[in-house]
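Consider a concrete sample entry:
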Amino acid sequence: MSAPYEEGDIPVDGPDTVAEKRLLSSLGRQAQTVNLARVVRLLELLDASDAGTLDEAGRGEAENLAHQVVGSAGTFGFPAASVEAVSIEDYFATWPSGAGAGTGPVRATLERLRLEFEG
C-alpha cells in the first residue's frame, strides 16, 4: 500500500480539510489531557523531593515526564509551556545537586503549567 501523499505533496501550511482539522484538534485535546496528568505526577514527585523520599527511579521518571511535556506541548500548540517545561526537565536532570536551590521556582512553574493545561 502506498502512502496517502507523495513526499513533495504533503501540505506544509496546515490541514486542508475539515477532517484533518478535526483530527488535529482531537489530538491536541488528548495531548492537553495527557500533559495535565504528567504535570500532576511531576508535582507528586516534587513533593517526594521536598520530603526527602525521592529516589533515583523517581528522579528518572520525573525527568522523562518533563521531557515528554516539552515535546508534546510544543507540538500541540503550547509553545510557552514547552519552554517552561525545559526548566523542570533540567531540575530533575541535575537532582539532587539542583535541589539545593529549593523547589519553590520549580513548583511555581508546575502550577502555571497545571493551570494552562486545565484551561
The helical segments are 18-51, 56-75, 79-93, 104-118. The radius of gyration is 17 Å.
